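Final report, Chapter 2: Outcomes

The project's central promise was a pipeline that accepts a single protein chain and returns its three-dimensional structure in a standardized token representation, suitable for archiving and comparison. That pipeline is now operational. To close this chapter, we reproduce one record exactly as it appears in the project archive, with the input sequence first and the structure output second.
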Amino acid sequence: MTHPLFDKHEATLERALQAIAERGYWSPYPESASPKVYGEGAAEAGRAAFEALRGKPFELDQAGTVGRTGRERSPYGFDLGIDYPKADLDALFAGIAQAHARWRKAGPQAWVGVCLEILERINKSSFLVANAVMHTTGQAFLMAFQAGGPHAQDRGLEAVAYAWDEMRRIPEGALWEKPAGKGEPIRMEKRFRIVPRGVGLVIGCCTFPTWNGYPGLFASLATGNAVVVKPHPGAILPLAISVRIAREVLREAGFDPDVVTLVAHEPGDDVARALAMRPEVRLIDFTGSTANGTWLEQHAKHAQVFTEKAGVNQIVVDSADDLGAVARNVAFSLSLYTGQMCTAPQNIYVPAGGIRTPSGTVPFAEVAAALADGVGKLLADPARAVEVLGAVQNEGVARRIDAARALGTVVLDSRAIAHPSFPGATIRTPLIVKLDAADRDKYLAEWFGPIAFVIATRDTAESLAIARAAAKEHGALTLSLYATDPRVVDEAIDVAEDAGVALSINLTAGVFVNQSAAFSDFHGTGANPAANAALTDAAYVAGRFRVVQHRKHL
């Protein structure tokens, strides 16, 4: 007997399964914020719902609440004034154990059906979530709507589809017959039960709380695990809204809502480590710093740990048919959300002798100047610029800009821009600094934010060698190449495959190296130190459940 929520969403699930097999473009959640798509008044209602949350307690009737916590401040210059339940961990996990007892026995169709209903309801709240993402991360509104809303929902659905695809391979039972010579065959009835691992812990980040948080949340929930969501203290609200919707769906479906819980906390405490070391926690999904991710990998040995950590993303420029188009594309990648993306490029390697173009060799200095000019033109209009840049999420980004300025010759300086609607916002444009290949101690560290280095190399062979070594030793989520020679392209593909990093070749149109499309791109493949596990394939979900059998003679 199927679950009614599974039946309701089965067509969407089947289409998602088709999408992950074909790897073409598909999304059930429209990325357009137009009222023609989401309805007249949807944007205004979402904004009003966000404003209604400000300055008030965010209520969740979950187990183990012993007070209130939270002090988020919008990067656009104001306090949210929202507090959240503070959890006593022992009491919380006692409540989770009670809730999980029935959930774990409900079976894959119930788990998947509930997840699909949660995603549908989150999609209906996309404008509320967008405002929450904007005013915790600093993303401009349209990016917050798309990346924090439909694109994040795509990532959640992708995880559910992979989970179902793996679980449906397991039959419920089998009749086992073994020939026994001249006698009757040995006959047994066998039953197979999919059993969740335990409790999943999702440790959120401050820049993309939903986009990075939903895969772990839904991969664990869809495989029958209870989930504890621990947001970054600077970006609690988007995940708190998601948790509240999940709890509403669980309750309506007849399950204890403590299957999904929230642990909010103040900055600087050790809640994440305390949660990670709980014996009940058997799955951990983490996005954040290398130091914290490595700590989890080294200490949380009792759990399956999935980490997406810092890396050094790179661009190799060998030659170009249209240097202006290259500069425009790279300029957008450097500027989008002020470079506060795990996929944003940092190091741009250019041969010291220049690059080949149809009009002849363009010297290194002119290539660097073209990149700077591309950024300058993109951000020339302040009203347009703030919609590309968004706001700086935390003070560390501004400090890194100041520190990076002193590393070499400044090709393009970072400048502050006033936001026309939010005078308290911190808006900074990209900084581009010239370095030499020998300056590895400077450019092989991650400089998170709107910071890029144009690095003079001996030739493209050295550029590719540095890129290979950097990805292997320090990790990278993206590598980009501009080359007109097919032999150079082949060499770059070899580097990318050897170093385990996604490669983009000659992007000059409306696709940028920062972007990763659910159902198509394999993001965070786990093939280099930036990610210790594949984040978008069957391996990401398969370890979240086990199969336990029982058998008897017939």
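Archive annotation: The chain has two domains: 4-172+196-281+533-544, 314-505.
This record, like all others produced under the grant, will remain available to the consortium after the project formally closes.
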